[in-house]
Fold:
Amino acid sequence: MTAIMPKPNRTLALFVVSILAALLLAPHFAGARNDSKKKGRPPAAVRVSPVQEKEVVTLVTLIGSAEPWLETVVASEESGLVKEVLVEEGDRVQKGQVLCKQNTSQLELKVEAAKANMAEARVQETQAQRELQRQERLYSIKSVSEKAYDDARFASEASHKKMARLKVELRALEDQLDKKIIRAPVSGYVVKRHCLPGQWLGEGKPVVTLVVPDPILFMVPVPERHIPAMRKGDSARVIFDALPGRVFRGIIDAVIPRADKVARTFPVRIKILNRDNAIKAGMLGRATFPVGNPHRAILVPKDALVLSSSGTVVYVINDDKAHLVPVKIGPAHGPLIEIQGNLKAGSKVVVRGNERLRPGQPVRVMREGKSVNPPATHRATPKPNPS
Structure:
């Protein structure tokens, strides 16, 4: 009778083989780990820039807003009914241009009556003058009494004075008639219209608001610590958010000696030429002023600064290694910034690739035009098959 033997378990056999292979290869992997530790961290690819030493002037940039050179509310000098408004908001007007007309029918009748009275008085004046001349001749030959001569003389003077009074009254009516036509006192833009045709316009009531935008005034609240450095006539550079790419040169027109009690800032007024009227009243902008005297300073690119747990630092390249140098930050000058620290002009500081550097780490300086970080690999995403 033949005995039946059970078949070997395949899973158990594979497990035994894997254990034996792990035991045989363990020394090889241990040696590879030791070799990688001996090699250390590979050099980091960085880009550098030289430390500069220059004579600079500290600049401060402050936010302000544009205001028109002049804003005036044109008012009515005479009360009356509005007949016609000849301008709209946004219109440009010239000095002397008609803005509004009031109804003048009643006033015109008064002017005509005054002219008729003057014509009558002129005739009476002429008659009185001739009578006086006749009486003078007769009185000279003793043909009339002195009283007749005096009466003729007084009548002539009275007619002359009456004529003068009527002339003044006519001029007053004509002046009143002229004031019924409201004209622009300056050249500018209409920013608000206050009346409409058919509306009763009282004496002194507003008709339109005009602004003169050239030159434009840029008002900046300046902290009190910078006020001693502000001088009338100093230049300033102004940019506006609404006008990208344009830089305007202005002159400090006034430093107003009254501070805001809460913010402790003083209004500084900058005058800017605005020939093309590109700058509108109310635009937000930034003015850059020079403050302080020229001085020599150590400058590095802003990209060289790294914020660490101990403060702001830069990495200086020495013997192909990155060395950490703590620094204190000063004012900015365009793409450069003032710093104080153990640096000298000509040293190389890391401006790209410094985010993950460690003190003493070997570095490899990349030439301009080469990327510090390798480009990411993009994989195409397969489109789902339509169902």
